[in-house]
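Much of what follows relies on a compact textual record of a protein's fold. Each token is a code from a learned vocabulary of local backbone shapes. The record below shows the convention in full.
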Amino acid sequence: MNRFALLLALAFAVHGAVSSGFGPQLREAWSAAGDYRERRVLHAFGGMDLEAIRTRLDACLPTSQAVALGPEALVDGFASQRLTEALYPRLIDATSPFSLEWMDPARLDPSRMLPLAATRGEQRLALLGPCPSEPPGETLAADRTRLALPRLVLSVAAVMGLGLLPWALVARRSRRPLALASVWLLGAMVLALLVAGATVLQGPLSWTAVRVGGVLLGGAALVRTRAVWGPALPAALGRLRRAPEVLVLLALLGAFTVRLGLWPVTGWDGRSIWLFHARRIFLHGMFANADVLNLDSRWSHPQYPPLLSGWLAFFGADGPVFNERSAGLALGVLLAGLLALLWRVAREELGRWVGGALTVGLFFAVQRLCAWGYADGFLALLLVLQVLGLGSARFRWEGWLAAWAAALLKQEGALLAAVFALLHLAPRVLAASSWRQRVREVLPLGLFLPAQAYVRWFAARGLGSDYAQPNWAAFLAHPLERLAAIVQALPAAARDQPALLAGLVGAGVCLAVLPAWVRRAPGARVLTALAPGVGVAFVLGVFLVTPFEQKWHLMTALDRVLLHASLLFVLAALRALTPEPAAT
């Protein structure tokens, strides 16, 4: 074990523990006043009691009646997006004869306006348009925020069952079965594919059937593969007994999950994109055409891949009602599954202590984003796992699994994972002695087809990538100014995401040791060496030709987009400093 590698890994973990704010976040979740519902109103909805608003609207209008947002409500981006999310399945439609608007008390006319339970300074939110004389009819129940532990445990068992089925199929046909820890990720992948298939075919899923089917299929897979998992399970338990340091990671994940159970999802994208998508997928068992074609909610990017939103919808399905608290806890379940797999792969590839410290540091680097409901933290872990796995002789298929998951998590995940896959395959294809061998080498690229099919389905309905029309004109007219804006935004991004400083240290170490390390085995190490550079090039591409206002885009996204490259620099530095466990 290289002592400098251990020092670097420990510094990464300690820096994350000190700078990530995890301790203060835990204290706030534990000691803040109010129950979960009250905290949701205050911190997620900015003080607007949207459940009360929804109840008053349902007493006036049928749920099928859309409402518009008035000019003042539309200008308030936070309120308009939270209203669109929380009032669903009532749609926001600019053509509706009924509208929601902020009104001064003096202008409120009870004969044609319905005051609602929300204030903004002296103004009140009101429904403009008199309530119909006939009763609105049946309405949907409000969201649940109870702690539904039995259903949560059943959902976890079902996901494990869905993951055990492909794990068993691979185990019966492979010389080396996938790591048992990959079951979580496999289950998430099966769930994402079910949601994608239901959306493309417009055939709704039954969440009860998925739960029951997952448990039954998992049980059948366990019976059929006793000869494989029988020896693997005691071996895994033995590794845990010989590694008491795993208790540190388990304690962190346990504390993180407790925080999720006490504190609602508050991230802007976490609510406006992923929880909003989850709510829609939950209600229809798919992403329904009516939601895809609704012009007034296209800002939520319905075309984003379904892994995270489908995962939240499945765990949030509490009978006929969406349980946001269960959906929030599902973020902890997904993070635990990814870190368990990373813990196994990193310790085998980098050594017990270096790999363990790296995994703990990765937890601190992404935990805040994950708790806010952003997909970027999960994507960063998947890209690290892909690069680490594909550069390994033992965990190559775990690397491909991570690439597949990244493609079904975010559109930029599909792009980066595909580039990393090509970097990994290029030396192998060039070294192949026959066309048959070359074809065999590129077959894993077929894993990216489901994500592409899903994206194409949305594109056919007018929902393409934000970068379908990049702002080349602004870049070509002022290239140096746009590059300078990115550089000037870096200090603020580093304050928001302290892991970027660790990436800067990793980049310095890479400059010192990576060239000599790559020269000793260029074919096997090209991916690890080039992946951080690809991440940096991606950041430059995103912000140099962004179709959005550049300053706003940098302020809201630079820290998240740069996180991937930062963590890959740390990984590359540790990889170059650590002796190879086996030839690749």
User: Anything to note?
Assistant: The first strand starts at residue 68 and ends at 69. DSSP finds 26 helices and six strands in the chain. The mean pLDDT is 90. Residues 550-577 form the longest helix (28 residues).
